[in-house]
Every structure is written in C-alpha cells, then in structure tokens.
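Worked example

This section walks through a single chain of length 457. The input is the sequence exactly as stored; nothing has been trimmed or padded.
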Amino acid sequence: MKDKSKEEKILEEIRKRVLDFESQNQEKEDLESLRKANIQALNEMSSLSQEEILRISFQVRKEFEAKEARRKRLIVLCFAILIVISGIWIIRFLNKQNNTFIETFDDNSKNWSLYDDVKYERKIENGSYVFQTGNDGWCYWDANNVNFPDYFAVELTSVWERGEKKSEYGIGLYQDDANTICFSLFPDGEVSFAQYQNDNWVIDNDWTGRIANSEGKENLQRVEIRRSTNQFKYFVNSHLAKEGTFLPIALNKVGFRSCGVQRVAFKSLKVIDLNTNSTIFSDDFETTRNDRWTLKKEIKAISEIKDGQYILETNEVDKCFYAAQYYTITPSQDVDIILKMKSLQGITSDFGLTLIQDEVNFYSLDYQNNGKARYTLYEGDKYTITGAYKNTKIESSEQLPVVTMKVEIRSGKVSYYINETFVEAFSLRNDFLISKVGIRACDEQKVAFDELQIIPQ
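Given that input, the structure is written out below as tokens.
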C-alpha cells in the first residue's frame, strides 16, 4: 500500500480538479465523462493499482454527487423564496394600483356632485317669467310702472314648479321698495295679505285656509282694488279668498314676488281698468322686454365639469362648498394626495383639499390666490383649529400656471406643500378615519380644479 499522506494529497488534487472542472463547465457534462477524467488523472499522477484508483474515484464521485444534490436543493429553495417574495410584491403592487385614484375631469364618470344653488334667478324662457329663489326668509320681486285708475284689477297667471311648500309667491303692488302691498299664495292653497310701510310690516301675513292646491297647476290670482276707499278683494281660481282694507299708499308699480326656496313660472300679467273694462297693461312673456323687467342671477354655488376641469363658483360670505369622493385612509396607511388647481376670479379666500370623516368632522388644507396657506379642523359645530397662514409667495390666477398642492400622510402625520414649498406638518386626531377626499372653495370666488390623485405608498 502507498503512504496514506500521499493518498490524501492525491485525493485533494482530484477534488481541486473536480471543482475547477465544475467552474469551467457551467453546463456540466454527464458524470460518466467526469469519472473517466478522474481515472485518467490518477493514472498520470500515481502508481496506484486500478482497484485503488477506482475506489478513490468512486469516493470522489459520491462527494461530488452529494454536493450537486445540495446545490440543486439550494437552487430550488432560493427559487421558491423568490416566488414567494415576488408574489407578495406583485400583490402589494396590484393593491396599490387598485387603490390609486386619478381624476382628470375629462368627464363626470366618477359622479361628482354638481351645484346649481341660487340665491335667486329671474329669467324669461318658454313664454314665462321664471323666478327661482333659494334663500329661506328672503323675498325677491320685479315690477313695472303703471298709471293706476281708481278702480282696477290685477290678474296674474302662474305655475308653481317645485320647492318648499311653505314658500309664498304672488302679486305685488308698489309705491317703492319700502312701501308695498302683497297678495300671496302657498303651493298648498293657503292665501294671505300683507302690507309693508316705511320698511315695516304693518299688516303681517294674515293667512286664510286652503282655497285650492296650486302645485304643478296653472293658477289665476286676481286682485280688485278701489283706491278711493282702500278696499280690496282677492280671488284665487275664481274663489274669493280674502277681502278687506289697506293703509293709504301711492301705488305706481305692478309686479310679482317670490320668497323662500322655490321655482315659479309667471305666465301672464294684466292690469284692467274696471271702470272701462279695458286692459291698460299686459305681458305674456313671449319675448324679453328689457324695458320692463330686470333679469338677474345671484348664485350661492354653481359648478360644472368642462374642458378637463371641475369649475366651482361660490357666492356666500363665510360659507364653503365642497365635492368629494369616497376613499378610506386608515391611521396606519401611507398615502400621497396631489391636487392641481388655480384661481379664476373673485375675492381672496380659501380653496383646496378637504379630508372628511363625516359632515361634522373634517380637515381642510387651504390655499389662497395671494399665496397664503394653512390647515383647519372642524369638529361638531365649529372650527377647533384655524392655523396661521404661511406665505408661500406662490400666487394663482387664470393667467398663471396651475398650483400643485401635495399632501403626504405617513402613519397619521400630515405634511403639506404648495409647489414643493413646505407649508406645515401636523398629526391627525387619533380617532380620525378618512372616509372621503374632496375639493372645496369658500366665500365669493371662482376656482378650477385640474387634477386629483390619491396614491398609496
């Protein structure tokens, strides 16, 4: 037998050759070719017997095969781990994609709420003088000059279209804005007479029980006046609803009025001299008579989606209007919100982003066209946080590029930027769960929102 240390050296040399062979042949030849190479190497390096060479070769082959098996198991394990990691990453990516919200306002496919709230609007359309009023407790009127005889009648045909059923409308006879007598009708058929003298209601609405339901129907109101005795008779659809006297007043105008929240179409107005039975004034509103009537529109808020923008116009001092989309953000979620917007016209006031839990709990990220920005928190029935404005020096107007508001939410902490200029950071209330994300504008201004993105991080 040969020296054992020599055998170990030979074995070590064979192992080295095997490893070199493996590194040079990544595609790897079959084991039989490798075995022959090993035997040839042994024949060249020693005088060992054929039997000894085969034994050593067999031992090396077993070690090599064991190593190959371990390597394959390791590759399979790594591949399995890679699949799991990739699957988790893909699921997270798809979830982020599914939860990403992008609105460019090319249309209203996401069903944004649109405003059409008016304080009042007076317009002539489809053969009617339409009054649309939207302020509870307020009345609006229009009137035209008439030279009244002593004994005359006023006939007004109208249709109540919609609104609150305790909103009055009807005939107005005027001396001026501070002196008038009013004959009014409720949609449910109740009627009243009132007199306003020197800016005071000297005869307040004296309501009479229902005469005729006027909802959606054409109704004829007729008032007969005898000026010499200050007497009147008030008819609704030929039914005598009221009669009595009024305080002396130098009447010189006839018209109509509408109060509260409703829409009424006045179809025709006529003044008849009852002494001669001749018509001294009439209008059926088939054409617009700018010499007679003053058409007006005063809005609360109107909005539209047009030319890739959500345009919101507001006209209520100390009041804000918003439109929002359902989107839940929990305290543990990380989200970026990007809003692109600009001021179009109006006073300097707040507009921007709102994060809503419910109608009485919301944060607002406010910006003004002069470049100032802040955040507020509304809780219950009042603003509990109204932060100081920071001047970003980034102004907005119709002629300037859009302003980008970015809000980063990280585990309940909010960082707020205007065109990458940092405004401030604050923490959301511990129990605050965002259920909606919206846009809003306040007071008297017109703004355009170009794009809203909500991107999970």
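What to look for: The longest strand covers residues 434-456.
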